[in-house]
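[agent] plan:
  1. take the single chain provided in the ticket
  2. run structure prediction with default settings
  3. attach structure tokens to the ticket
  4. add a short note for the reviewer (M.T.)
[agent] executing step 1
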Amino acid sequence: MTTYPLILRPPGARRLALLWRGRAEDAAWVRPAFLASLLATGLLYLWNLSASGYANSFYAAAAQAGSQSWKAFFFGSLDAGNSITVDKPPAALWPMALSVRIFGLGSWQVLVPEVLMAVATAAVLYAAVRRRFSPAGGLIAVGAFALTPVAALMFRFDNPDALLALLMTVTVYCVLRAVEHGRTKWLVAAGAVVGLAFLVKTLQAFLILPPLAVLYAVCAPVRPVRRLWQLLSATAVMVVAGGWWVAIVELWPASSRPYIGGSQHNSFLELTFGYNGFGRINGDETGSVGGGGGAGGRWGDSGLGRMFNAEVGSQISWLLPAALILLVAGLLVTRRAARTDTARAAFVAWGGALLMTAGVFSFMAGIFHQYYTVALAPYLAALVGMGATVLWEERSRTWPRLVLAGTVAVTGWWSFVLLGRTPDYLPWLRWLVLAGALAGALGLAVTGRPVRPGLPGDGVEGVAAAGGPQAWAPPTGPASPGAPPVPGAAPGARGVEPAAGPAAPGAAAAVPQQVGQPGAVSQVPPQVPAMPPVPPAMPGVAVSDVAAPGVGAPAGVAPGGAGAASGAARYGRGGAGRVLAGRTARRVALGAVGVSLAASLAGPFAYTLTTLNTGHGGAIVTAGPPGAGMMGFGGGGRHGGWTGAGGTAQGAGGRAGFPGAGGQAGGGQGGAPGGGWGQGRGGGAVFPGGGFPGGAGGTQGGAGGAHGGGTAGQGGRLGGMGGDTAGGGMRGGMGGGGMGGLLDGAKVSDQAKSLLRRDAGSYTWPAAAVGSQNAASYQLATGDPVMAIGGFNGSDPSPTLAQFKKYVADGRIHYFVAGGMGPMGGAGGAGGAEGFPRWGGFQGTARGGSQGTAQGAAQGGPEGTRQGGARGGGMSGFSQGGSRISSEISSWVEATFKKVTVGDATFYDLTQKA
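[agent] step 2 finished; step 3 output follows
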């Protein structure tokens, strides 16, 4: 007798093999493909990451402060001296602050946590789609998400939106897991995640709650009373998870904590329900940068078309038409499924989240930035992956096949439209995309013809690919009493109780589609055991590759087999499905799938690559090439100057106020000198017919600004506020970066750093500056706390003049940084809120440029009213009813203390009287 040694792999090796290979029932390619998709997403988003520097210096400075002070970490303070917080809860700052505390301050230390959030979002998306549909659908969802331009922008940026998108994705996943079996733990987990998301971006976290709550209340496979109890439990957990921090902040003595940035009365609840809450919906945001007059104002046109317009469309809408079509198609395919069907629940969950969030974004009248739409990216991607899988599996029927083909054609057409909005950007690409989409759609439409009834393969798709009859092995649980034997099963094996109701004519014994889902049936033809091998039309698309036992796979189908039951059975529809016969036809079908995917993703992929190759900084950014999605203040990357090529009066080239004749041309998003506020040609961003940007390349302001004294331009930041061109740049000028430090911070010279670092350890704040962006730039440059007077907009009443005088008298502040930006709105005018005393308003020309607040609004420009209203929709004042304390502090400092000039920067030494 020959004996062989027993070789056991160590536990670590087994775990590694399991990680690489996945579950035993998975096809060999599934787990490696999944890991490769995550690796590709991570590497793609890490590419050229440091080009953006600290990205948004506002949040980077807060992360730095949190790395230096645990008190600043807890409250989300902008500086380690804890003078004022950012205008959001602190949860999004915590990962960055921990990274900086561990690895030190740097671009990668700040931004890599955001990239890891992208990888985590992709993993959750894959898990959600794969679980109920297929690995291929999960991979499509990952690709659609990773190649969405605004996702490539914001998951490499330090705004809170990346973490919010991740948490919202996890929430939907948890709710869908709860719907499967009615387990309380998953619903409670969803509540906890939403509570954490509230600490990221307050009420935006609640947008998806209505559709998810209704979904569980209707579809959960438990009794109604238990559903209600579970929903109440999840709500309680959500309140605790999000409310503990709020309670501490509100109960903490205001005198010993930082001021709540963005509020007018040092209250987080006011910030939550006002500036960051309902004010975003109705536009009443006291202390904000205000809304524009006229239709849409500075934040663009609101309405049903907002997600598709020239300002927003190129950021998010590449696959939005496809997602909407596939959502409707998925609901139609599953319309006859049981109430508890998890496939339909998935479409309702992801579709409801998409429609609810997009609807609010479309109609909100307050502050809206294009990058907010990153919240939609996971929902879109999931719907595309699920819908494509369902229609592919149903392609033996005419209407699903034609809808799938039509979806590809519509996606190609919409990409053609979006690419046409930047005609100088790869002009050949849109034609290639259109041709590829039409070819792919044609291929999908003409393939997938059903074979004649009775031929091998008719009825159950790809069963033999799982090993023939073995794929139809009976369930391992106890057999139902009286259940009939399963054809082709082992002797004595029996199925589960057949569904009630008459069987379809000629159908064999029916078994439930899913455990716990009565009424969903799978037709098992008697001839299955003798069926010859039929290769699957699209390997890996089958549901049975994916689902765990009882989740998505027909009862009696071995989970993980390479084949699948027909789509008719899978989605609760009676009747046997039919499959495509013939190797050539299958190759054509797979080729059509490849061409369709390539054509659908080529446009967003190109925009994503451009986004990755471009540095982005400041408060307002957009993805894609120059000219894509310009709106409001700034956008894109780091820009040149702020000049116009000639405004027009009302009715002559767009809305009154600022529409320009030249539209969006210039150097722009890569930081080229001379760039206007957007690029492209012929308008379409900001205003119809043009906007703030200069005509052919912009004029003054690009290399630092004309009168404004802007310090950037050549370095790529928004130039100063000056400009002498006919269109009217901004007059006055506060130095610093864009909009005087509102949109982006100042460029700090080495001499200025040396000055501020001198004896810095002797002061709580070595410097103070108006506006958070301005202060953040100096703080990041020196590594020392810098007080942000007035918060982000310079309009918060913190500190008061009396408090500031006391800080100076106590020797807690050394220098005051001249410039910055107080609440803009002019120094007078027709009843306007007083702004920074030196602000001269908008200087334009008689052709429609704004004449400035002090000169009235005879030419259609801003009138200086509280709302900043312009006759015909000119630009509003920055402070919408906000404080003017920053102006008072600036005036007092200038009149009292000695001026110190270092290069282009001016400071006031608060230890030396003038």
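[agent] step 4 note for reviewer: The radius of gyration is 30 Å.
[agent] ticket updated
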